[in-house]
# Entry
Amino acid sequence: MARKVVSRKALREEAEAAEALEKAEGGTTKKKKKAPAKRKKKAAAEVRVKLFYGVFNQSLKRVALYEFNQKKQAEKKAVELSKDGKTPHFVQKVKEAIEE
# Structure
């Protein structure tokens, strides 16, 4: 399957000939550019979050949740769950959305 090879020069000559023919007939060759469509901005819904301390195991499953001001209790719980050679637990900050 051989394709016909057309050079850019030949294509340009054809385009110029078509433009000249259209001008002779009285038509316009330039197209009007459309204005870009305006995008609507979505209003960002305000989500309030509260900070907690969570006690997690090695597989990142939350075992317990404590208020932010109860960090010492969360650390005690992590140490209690980790002792006796069991899987280690750790304390990490957790942000959760609150509903009003």
User: Anything to note?
Assistant: The radius of gyration is 35 Å. Residues 49-97 form one domain.
